[in-house]
Amino acid sequence: MRKIIHIDMDAFYVSVELRDRPDLTGLPVVVAWEGERSVVCAASYEVREYGVHSAMSVVRAKKLCPSAIYLAPNFAKYRETSAQIHKVFKKYTDLIEPLSLDEAYLDVTENKLKVPTATEVAQLIRQDILASTGLTASAGVAPNKFLAKIASDWNKPDGIKVVSPRKMMDFLLPLPVQKIPGVGRVTLSKLHHLNIFTVEDLSTFSLGELTHHFGSYGYRLYQLARGVDKRPVKPNREPKQISAENTFTRDLTIKEIADVLPALAEKVASSAQRKGQFGHCVTLRLKTADFRVMTRSMTLSSVLHDADEILQQAEDLLEQLSPDEKSQLYRLAGIGISQFLSKEAVDSQLSLF
After folding, report:
1. Which residues contact 83 (CB under 8 A, 6 or more apart)?
2. Any coiled-coil ranges, and where (predicted)?
3. Which residue ranges make up the annotated binding site for Mg(2+)?
4. CATH code that applies to domain 13-74
5. CATH 1.10.150.20 residue ranges for the chain
């Protein structure tokens, strides 16, 4: 049985800023660029009480909490702090899979310091992170990645949740199905239509029933409902693209597609900011009503760092479609960014803003 830890820093960007600006402690603080279509990178726990959260549009956040203090992101500083955190990880294991600057999976089935239990390793890691960076981290400990990630959010902030193999199903079955990775709005609606609201409800469906309703993803749902996740921790995981897409409940015209692009651009920008990954290639992906896939890409010389810039390029790509393509109906739209710059180049370009 594997021993997996998921470490998730608590309000990472905000926590770094508050560490360096103790005068702002206890105040509603938001880390975000203040463009019209910018999104919240991170929100302090004080501002969350107003309903503000990461990935929310800045316009919406300002309406919810007009008194919030806005700080521009400093990704050079976040990268430096993230590197300190990863040094702590390396003390215990080389099997580290970073998901972003502020979270990672660790396989501590065999740890370097011969600490007897994964729970003790997680506690030591949290203590070491606090000592070296002044920041708190939450941890989930479980036999696989799926459960460890859910557990890390259980006792936030500055907490730990252990899901032992013996109690795995007791923890898993009562969970709402939206806790399952990949269950978005459309899938959740389909699950609810089938009267599936909890993982326990899901576990009563056969593999054949789930693949009938959800295709290949049905197999994944079947496995996760039984606590099975065989994915290994993959060191040096680097994304090739950051993207967001939406499958519609009805086919849309090209004008309606244009109306959904801002939300997609915001999702991509939020994810890029959270991961600290910035590229200079934008891709627009469309799927027609008869399931034909079209992609259009544009590469720029400068880094794309916010939703406004990503949206502008996506709108330009949409405008470049042929008259025949514009007359089609579409069932899916997506935006992605790729061709990520080196960390040094990103920090250099972002320092200009």
Report:
1. none
2. none
3. 8, 102
4. 3.40.1170.60
5. 176-225
